[in-house]
Amino acid sequence: MNIPLLDLSDQYEALANDLEAALARVVQSQRFIGGPEVAAFESETAAMLGSPNAIACASGTDALLLALWALGIGEGDEVITTPFTFFATAGAIARLGATPVFVDIIPDSFQIDPEAVEAAITTRTRAIIPVHLFGVACDLDALSRLTETRGIAIIEDAAQSMGSTLHGRQTGSIGDLGCFSFFPSKNLGAWGDGGLVTARDSAVADTVRSLRSHGAFPTKYFHDRVGTNSRLDALQAAILRVKLPHLLDWGAARRQRVARYQELIQERGLENHVRFQSVTEGCVPAFHQCVVRVPQRDALGQFLTEAGIGNAVYYPRPLHLQECFAHLGYRVGQLPVAEQACDEVLALPIFPELRDDQQQAVIDRIAAFFDAQAPTS
């Protein structure tokens, strides 16, 4: 049985008629950049997230860049973040001339450690970017207690967590700004790149709107600042509008699949070999990925691949040890929890349409791997 890490074909089949109609609507309008389709998507997404402002842009990477840029973060500033995430989180900081400051993570949840954040705060700290990794929320309550009297912004990297909640609030709507990605593999995925910024402050939101359109907002051709071109295509907005009403149901299905994996692991007595990501108190996760810790990660991954079972490593090298950040002076062993996670994490197949027999096959192969590792008498 070949089981992919992610399969979007069933999702497309279920929504095909609505998606084709949405595309036809845009083609007939001949409005391909911005316009009513993008405005409607922003309004609908803001309502779903419970955010006063939602600004669509070209990608999740640009969402991070625009959020930092709108706060005036640049040369001489420090932004604290996690080394265990996709590169864009730190790349956006560096692109503006600011310094990414990496701190270690919590072992079980993979989330940024608030105690490590507190120890890293200096007079140059302008923002913290917590990443709701794999669709599980960070402890924003603890981070907020650190920032509320220090004038430090919280920019949520919610690229993987759309549909997750923390104490009943949608991730990406809790901090000063939130950043989302609509890369096709995301829980809410476009048919290309796309992103979104949320902002609590309307003035900051208007700055984001200006920056995404060459610094011209609200009047075209009149530029108050130098910005960039980071607009969401109307075709992508139309596709996302079709999918958005299904997002929370898909999140519930993902939680059910992760719970099923956990049950199967327990039934096979593999809890000591395979450890699941823990969930922050008060969080209802969307599980963009189902990531487990396995000390024999590379061998198990190869074994599953040979059996036709999709798997992936997110992420094989922490950001503080990437060559492009060598000038920051981090050393191997300096952030040991993140480094160990990079050696042990493995993502298993997860998508809302994943069948019970497919999940059974995945766990059967994992069990077969560990059976083969057991010493013979």
What does this structure look like?
The protein has 377 residues and is α/β, with parallel strands linked by helices. The chain folds into 2 domains: 9-103 and 111-243, Type I PLP-dependent aspartate aminotransferase-like (Major domain) (Aspartate Aminotransferase, domain 2, 3-Layer(aba) Sandwich); 246-372, Aspartate Aminotransferase, domain 1 (Alpha-Beta Complex), CATH 3.90.1150.10. It contains 12 helices and 13 strands. The strands form 3 sheets. A 7-stranded mixed beta sheet has the order 1-9-8-5-4-2-3, sandwiched between helices. A hairpin with a 2-residue loop joins β6 (165-166) and β7. α1 (9-29) packs across α8. The chain is globular, with a radius of gyration of 21 Å. The chain starts with 8 loop residues before the first helix and ends with a helix.
List keywords for this structure.
single chain; 377 residues; alpha/beta; Aspartate Aminotransferase, domain 2; Aspartate Aminotransferase, domain 1; 2 domains; seven-stranded mixed β-sheet; 12 helices; globular
